[in-house]
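F.,

This is the one I mentioned.
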């Protein structure tokens, strides 16, 4: 049985009632660490723990500023509070962080640290030192503010359907209508609304590309892609591995995507499958409505997680009690969904835009998997130990999507609806791979060619989406919408190059699900063991702890796609 304490650890450096209001109040803690005399191995380890405590306090403050702003993008006071941190606090921290890193790595007693325990921690510190450039501090501050404008712009997007205003997330429910004309109307209105901000988002992206490229050049890199790979700690795979993944998706995944969409076309009795038909069901089959309102969503998810393993349910109960959940879509709320770990207090925050649809269940259990990861890693002694690679973080979330299907009867009491829901989930597992490859390949081109203009960008985007296009969906007459499709992917704006992780992790999640089908308790034990290690091991070692091999080669993709196909056939 896994448990995780979330109470605050006793303070030694920062007073319990400290509030971060300005740099003047915060700097003395950094100065004390920098000036402290360290004359024993024990003193060095205590110094590391104290630095970790300070990092946790600062990190949690920054996280709350961002959480509050994304929950209400129209509140200028919240936006200003976040911008204040980015422009007035973080830039002042960076030189101290570099100085503290040098103090540690250059200290004669650093050699006494347990190399096994501190290997990944020290590797990340050395990485930070290699990337640090004084001239990048103002650029990074500007980037922190600039990339949040994507949420501000997107949060204002609404459309009117049947005389009522909806966010784009809310309006997507009309894509499940039995009335094909209503589906088309919703699809076109959503796309037209996105086009209204096409130029604003293009200009925002231009600024982000320019500043990121300069950041990379300042650090001695040929392009931002190479800089970002280093920054993300991609020690265990290369850009060439990513390119091989793209090709494998075309070879081993697209054929399955074609089968899925051909089946959908036949099921709907259509001569031509259009993009507004993808989420529809035949007449007489009602759209899946797994919950009504956010309270029912969280309560049903708690029941589902508890049935899987009581500790998982307890994690969500704690978050519910602390009001660390904002689940429903509304005007002025940033798009997307996330789980935000809170390094100091331990119980993370889940943000999403639920509208009562099947996809919301997937999002909720996905973010719930991230939350479980946050709880399992929190007892680790250092903040740096809890900073796990995204390639394992997404295994936590995607495996939970698959594990939880065994208890989806809490959402779907009707056996036929339950089967449909599972089928929907497995179809999503397959059909998301081409989009992952598209977004990743697009980013490689963007930052290899940072001087491109808007016309070249659009041309290249169209080339890439056509490369990964299935043979079933008919997009004729929708070229303008398609050419603008990249703008709906917030990762391009907010977390560049963070997307291939979903593909790598989906393969890991499928591998864990295979284990689960053979021995559910053993698979869950492996899952918890790997997640409780946080970032204290290398990526291959974390996968190994989960009973997996870190492998996203074409051969592995082929094997796992065949397994999912077999499971889908079993459902039919």
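My design for it:
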């Amino acid at each position: 049985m896994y448990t995780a304490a979330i109470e605050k650890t006793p303070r030694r450096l920062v007073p319990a009632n400290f509030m971060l209001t300005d740099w003047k109040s915060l700097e003395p803690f950094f100065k004390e660490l920098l000036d402290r005399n360290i004359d024993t191995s024990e003193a060095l380890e205590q110094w590391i723990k104290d630095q970790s405590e300070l990092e946790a306090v600062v990190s949690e403050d920054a996280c709350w500023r961002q959480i509050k702003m994304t929950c209400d993008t129209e509140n200028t006071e919240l936006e200003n509070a976040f911008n204040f941190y980015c422009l007035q606090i973080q830039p002042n921290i960076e030189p101290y962080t570099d100085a503290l890193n040098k103090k540690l790595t250059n200290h004669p007693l650093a050699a006494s640290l347990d190399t096994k325990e501190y290997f990944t921690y020290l590797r990340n510190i050395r990485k930070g030192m290699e990337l640090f450039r004084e001239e990048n501090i103002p650029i990074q501050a500007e980037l922190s503010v600039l990339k949040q404008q994507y949420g501000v712009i997107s949060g204002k997007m609404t459309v009117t359907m049947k005389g009522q205003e909806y966010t784009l997330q809310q309006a997507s429910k009309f894509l499940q209508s039995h009335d094909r004309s209503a589906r088309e109307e919703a699809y076109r209105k959503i796309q037209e609304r996105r086009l209204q901000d096409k130029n604003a988002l293009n200009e925002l992206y231009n600024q982000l590309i320019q500043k990121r490229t300069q950041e990379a050049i300042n650090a001695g890199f040929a392009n931002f892609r190479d800089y970002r790979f280093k920054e993300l700690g991609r020690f265990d795979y290369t850009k060439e591995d990513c390119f091989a993944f793209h090709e494998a998706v075309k070879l081993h995944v697209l054929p399955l995507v074609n089968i899925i969409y051909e089946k959908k076309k036949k099921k709907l009795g259509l001569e031509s499958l259009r993009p507004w038909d993808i989420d529809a069901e035949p007449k007489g089959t009602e759209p899946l409505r797994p919950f009504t309102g956010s309270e029912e969503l969280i309560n049903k998810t708690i029941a589902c997680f508890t049935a899987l393993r009581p500790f998982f349910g307890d994690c969500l109960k704690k978050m519910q009690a602390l009001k660390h959940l904002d689940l429903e879509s509304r005007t002025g709320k940033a798009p997307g969904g996330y789980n935000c770990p809170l390094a100091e207090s331990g119980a993370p925050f889940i943000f999403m835009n639920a509208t009562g649809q099947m996809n919301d269940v997937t999002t909720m259990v996905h973010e719930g998997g991230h939350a479980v990861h946050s709880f399992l890693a929190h007892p680790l002694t250092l903040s740096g130990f809890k900073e796990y690679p995204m390639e394992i973080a997404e295994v936590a979330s995607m495996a939970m999507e698959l594990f939880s299907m065994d208890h989806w009867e809490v959402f779907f009491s009707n056996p036929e609806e339950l089967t449909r829901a599972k089928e929907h989930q497995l179809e999503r597992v397959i059909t998301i791979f081409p989009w992952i490859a598209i977004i990743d390949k697009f980013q490689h081109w963007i930052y290899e060619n940072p001087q491109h203009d808007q016309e070249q960008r659009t041309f290249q985007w169209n080339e890439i989406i056509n490369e990964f296009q299935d043979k079933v969906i008919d997009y004729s007459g929708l070229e303008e919408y398609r050419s603008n499709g990249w703008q709906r992917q917030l990762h391009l704006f907010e977390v560049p190059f963070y997307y291939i992780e979903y593909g790598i992790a989906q393969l890991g999640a499928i591998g864990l699900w295979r284990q689960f089908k053979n021995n559910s308790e053993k698979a869950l034990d492996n899952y918890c063991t790997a997640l409780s290690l946080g970032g204290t091991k290398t990526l291959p070692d974390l996968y190994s702890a989960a009973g997996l091999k870190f492998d996203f080669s074409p051969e592995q993709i082929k094997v796992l796609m065949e397994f999912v196909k077999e499971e889908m056939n079993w459902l039919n």
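The beta strands are 158-161, 164-167, 325-328, 338-340, 349-354.

Talk soon.
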